[in-house]
Design a protein that fits this description.
alpha+beta; 4-stranded antiparallel sheet; 13 helices; 6-stranded antiparallel sheet
């Protein structure tokens, strides 16, 4: 059977540019290992393209809303097109930080204490009383972020009650629900989890050292602004615990094929703070660094995942 791989990238989210870069890189990596690849955006021709391409396997490389909230993946499921990555339900669960963190905590894994605050509640109840209650409940500093967004967009570290309202407004610019959680001080690492059919395996952890001290959108996608160390320079027992946490999160959220689990190592203990069903694959992204550190090639990994999805 000659498969055609359809790499879907672009979309209309705030992360369109990153998605296009990820898609181009994965498409080229697959071509480099001899696969037949079509690159496409999300548009009115997509469904027809999927229907008209025999033996198609999709690789969704969309970041943000449409790509990670499960919507496109559920369309692929309805069309009967096999695809790489988590299914629609698991994607939706993982993309919503207010739900994913609750699920991770519920199965006994390390994750921050968190409050989800919809915009209409914030508006109706008024800021001052809420700020006081949130501060006494979680303590400062805090992290505020949209419940459904990626690439650190709308994310703010808050050191005092006076900074909280503006941080919430910044988060609401990206969606109707903000998440407020206890700030995790420590070493940020990302662990990519790969499952090629024999169960999920953690790849080497990537340590993140942003020059600015904050791993924000600019630090993520501007070459030279962040130093990445793969494998992370941490004790072996800490790296083993991080790998175990990443695999446990991958399983708790019902993910498959490939995911990335972001965590902070605090006092030698890894703590989950975010899962990702469509890890970036750009030149400054974390998952390709982990794949490289494991001694693998990007094209080889995605070709294996395409075959697994097709089977």
């Amino acid at each position: 059977m000659v498969m055609t791989v359809i790499v879907i990238a672009g979309g209309l989210s705030h992360e369109r540019d990153v998605s296009l870069r990820s898609g181009r890189r994965v498409a080229q990596a697959l071509r480099d290992v001899g696969r037949d690849v079509i690159e496409t955006d999300v548009n009115g021709d997509l469904v027809q393209l999927l229907r008209d391409t025999p033996d198609a396997v999709a690789v969704p490389m969309l970041h943000g809303g449409l790509g990670e909230d499960g919507a496109l993946r559920e369309v692929l499921e309805v069309l009967g097109v096999p695809f790489v990555g988590a299914n629609g339900a698991s994607s939706r669960l993982t993309f919503d930080k207010s739900i994913a963190t609750s699920v991770v905590r519920a199965v006994g894994l390390n994750a921050p204490r968190q409050i989800a605050l919809p915009h209409d509640i914030f508006r109706e109840l008024g800021a001052p009383a809420l700020m006081e209650s949130i501060g006494s409940q979680l303590g400062y500093p805090l992290m505020v972020k949209p419940s459904r967004s990626g690439s650190a967009l709308g994310v703010t570290k808050v050191s005092s009650a006076s900074e909280l309202p503006s941080a919430l407004v910044a988060a609401y610019a990206y969606g109707p629900v903000a998440v407020i959680e206890s700030y995790l001080e420590g070493t940020e690492i990302a662990v990519t989890v790969l499952d090629e059919g024999d169960g999920p395996v953690a790849l080497p952890a990537v340590e993140i050292r942003p020059e600015s001290g904050v791993y924000d959108y600019e630090s993520r996608y501007t070459a030279g602004t962040t130093r990445f160390v793969a494998p992370a320079q941490l004790d072996d027992d800490v790296l083993a615990a991080a790998g175990a946490l990443a695999v446990a999160v991958h399983e708790a959220l019902g993910l498959r094929h490939i995911s990335r689990v972001d965590m902070i190592v605090r006092d030698g203990v890894p703590v989950f703070f975010e899962g990702n069903v469509a890890p970036g694959m750009t030149e400054t992204s974390l998952a390709p660094l982990a794949i490289e550190a494991s001694g693998r090639e990007l094209g080889e990994v995605f070709a294996a995942l395409v075959d697994l999805a097709a089977s």
